[in-house]
Design a protein that fits this description.
Blueprint: E1 2-5, H1 11-22, H2 32-58, H3 65-78, E2 89-92, H4 96-106, E3 112-115, H5 124-140, E4 146-150, H6 157-167, E5 177-183, H7 187-193, H8 218-233, E6 240-245, H9 258-264, E7 272-276, H10 285-301, E8 306-309, H11 317-331, E9 338-339
Helix pairs in contact: 1-2, 2-10, 6-8, 6-11, 9-10
Length: 341
Amino acid sequence: MNLGSPDSTAVKDVRRYLDEFLMDERVIDKPWLFRALLVKAIIVPFRAPKSAEAYRSIWTEKGSPLIVISKQQQGALKKEIEEPVSIAMRYGNPSPIQAYDELVEKNPDLEEVIVIPMYPHYAMSSYETGVEYAKEQHKKGAYSFKLTFIKPFFDNEDYVNAVTESIRPFLENGYDQVLFSYHGIPERHIVKCDPTKQHCLKVNNCCEVSSPAHAYCYRHQCWTTTNLVAGKLGIPKEKRGFSFQSRLGKDPWLQPYTAVRLQELPKEGVKKIVVVCPAFVSDCLETLEEMGEEGKEIFLHAGGESFDLIPCLNVHPLWINAMAKWVKEYASGKQEMIFEE
């Protein structure tokens, strides 16, 4: 289960998609009336045409890259496990109900569905809303099978190894910095998800100080992934960067901002950069257009000389093997990767 995509690059389809996405109370966590006025009267009317243009720049003959890659992942995973595999999106098509119906049609006696939210890190606007939506659709359809969810896998050895090996070939020709760019979220989301209400963004070096809050802290989990991957690759601290992209609105979001760092780095002597986006396991608008086009332009215009964007895991064999392993281990009684509610 991934984020989703418009059905086409037509403005009307992009508008419908953005409306569903931004009206999600876990994305813009404001009262409904305020959110409706903001989204329907301000953001979507102005953003839809620009987003449609951005989607057109990455659209393929087969459709949205995210949907196409998800289908490729589905096909690759089917070859590794005996269980049937369907795909679903949090927004747009195919919906969880479509996926559930497809599974039940092929397996009338279905007892359990394992859901893999394609978000390595916990955030209320990604993992949490995906899980809750899958549950809502399950309840709405009155299905008899139970749902089991794979928990965030930001520090899972198989995921970390897959990211590590996807990066390694890009370092062979040398680099000034490897920039780990993650999708941004508002700081208020970090505070809201902190079960202790006393740790995140309140304690000095909060990501490095042990706390129960880390199980729900997006920033800590991104920081952890960066350190684990960089450690395996032997990237020294002075040659690794850590930033957040895709800011929306004027409220403070997690910093440093990727766009700002890409503009600053050439002035700091970083001329040759390698960029990886570990929060995304499938290439999409935020990687292909925002980073691959806009990010590259910002960096080169600011004086950078070389910009390499590493593809997401997509159908990397180690990533497909990781998902297959989680399913197989659960089926055999090992449940380390499983999160049930």
